[in-house]
């Protein structure tokens, strides 16, 4: 049976590739030049230390992105979580539109991303996003959408698992930096700012004219992303201008470093640009779980990583300052952490 055409939560007609979504030629993705020969590492969390720590550390230094397998989060839970998120975006538009807002301070929101071209007109991205807070140990079900019916329960269970996984990843990364296990988590502060962002990319008739998400670095500290099993879309910039595709690996998560760990590690671990492109025939879903400091946390290069040979690359700041700079650069190819760089 043919499914009803997709309508954005804030759209009154079925989604079509109108001028609102078409990027000017110089910012379109050049899909033919995306490298297929380079891939990011796949790291098996069952590997023994110290090689596990070494592999993670090298991936963080070189790519800022890697896959993890044998991560311990039950496959069945992952599958059901993806299904629930797909179901959310298939709710009738009026059931999503009451959550639609452009106010980024709203904890629960449905929104669209856009790119400001030449700092002027906005081009809307070919996607819709559902964002909300998550907590690993506190009950947050009441903050979540009521529909689809199982979402509250599933998202709570998933968050608990991701909470443990992130704790483990931060510990491995700390050790990779030569620090004691708890150091990164400690420096990221108590009451971290935890946000879940689910992205839905409907099939797009001409993927070369649009983007699903513009090129960006993640502003928080650490991201664990689950993506559709058999649809490509996520791409990472490895050198200036060269893009590679992060194709799905079965039962894996994509892990990437955000800006705050780049700063805390004094530039050793990389927060790199990435984007999502659309697919002509298939819809794609991803769920990004973000871990970041709260707005009062002071972030700066960790003292043990700074010495005469490695002078601090960034000044310290309250995370709220970073967020303000982030919002100031809304819609552009942001350069947020650069605003906190120290001259060398
Ligand atoms: C993000 C992101 C990529 C994707 O949500 O920050 O980079 O593949 N998502 O959806
Ligand atoms: Ni991202």
From TrEMBL:
Keywords attached to this entry: Iron, Metal-binding, Oxidoreductase
Top-level taxon of the source organism: Eukaryota
Fe2OG dioxygenase domain mapped to chain residues: 191-293
GO MF term (any one): metal ion binding
GO BP term (any one): coumarin biosynthetic process
InterPro entries named among the record's database cross-references: DIOX_N, IPNS-like_FE2OG_OXY, IPNS-like_sf, Iron_ascorbate_oxido_reductase, Oxoglu/Fe-dep_dioxygenase_dom
Pfam families assigned: 2OG-FeII_Oxy (PF03171), DIOX_N (PF14226)
PANTHER family cross-referenced by the UniProt entry: 2-OXOGLUTARATE (2OG) AND FE(II)-DEPENDENT OXYGENASE SUPERFAMILY PROTEIN-RELATED
Family to which the UniProt record says this protein belongs: Belongs to the iron/ascorbate-dependent oxidoreductase family.
UniProt protein name: Protein DMR6-LIKE OXYGENASE 2
């Amino acid at each position: 049976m043919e499914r009803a055409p997709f309508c954005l939560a804030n759209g009154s007609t079925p989604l079509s590739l109108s001028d609102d979504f078409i990027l000017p030629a110089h910012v379109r993705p050049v899909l033919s030049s995306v490298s297929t020969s380079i891939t990011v590492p796949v790291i098996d969390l069952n590997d023994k230390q110290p090689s596990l720590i070494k592999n993670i550390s090298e991936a963080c230094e070189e790519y800022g992105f890697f896959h993890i397998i044998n991560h311990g989060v039950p496959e069945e839970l992952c599958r059901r979580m993806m299904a629930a998120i797909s179901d959310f975006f298939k709710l009738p538009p009026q059931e999503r539109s009451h959550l639609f807002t452009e106010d980024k301070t709203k904890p629960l929101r449905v929104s669209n991303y856009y790119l400001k071209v030449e700092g002027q007109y906005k081009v809307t991205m070919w996607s819709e996003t559902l964002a909300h807070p998550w907590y690993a140990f506190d009950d947050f079900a009441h903050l979540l959408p009521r529909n689809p019916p199982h979402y509250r329960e599933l998202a709570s269970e998933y968050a608990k698992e991701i909470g443990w996984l992130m704790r483990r990843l931060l510990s491995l990364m700390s050790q990779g930096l030569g620090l004691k296990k708890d150091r990164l988590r400690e420096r990221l502060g108590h009451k971290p700012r935890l946000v879940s962002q689910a992205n839905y990319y409907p099939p797009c008739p001409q993927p070369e004219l649009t983007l699903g998400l513009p090129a960006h670095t993640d502003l928080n500290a650490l991201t664990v992303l689950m993506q559709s099993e058999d649809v490509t879309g996520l791409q990472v910039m490895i050198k200036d201008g060269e893009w590679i595709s992060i194709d799905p690996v079965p039962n894996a998560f994509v892990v990437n470093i955000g800006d705050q760990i780049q700063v805390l590690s004094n530039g050793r671990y990389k927060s790199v640009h990435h984007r999502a492109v659309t697919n002509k025939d298939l819809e794609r879903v991803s769920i990004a779980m973000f871990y970041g400091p709260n707005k009062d946390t002071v972030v700066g290069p960790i003292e043990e990583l700074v010495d005469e040979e490695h002078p601090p690359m960034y000044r310290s700041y309250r995370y709220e300052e970073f967020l303000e700079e982030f919002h100031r650069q809304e819609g552009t190819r942001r350069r947020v952490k650069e605003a906190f760089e120290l001259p060398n």
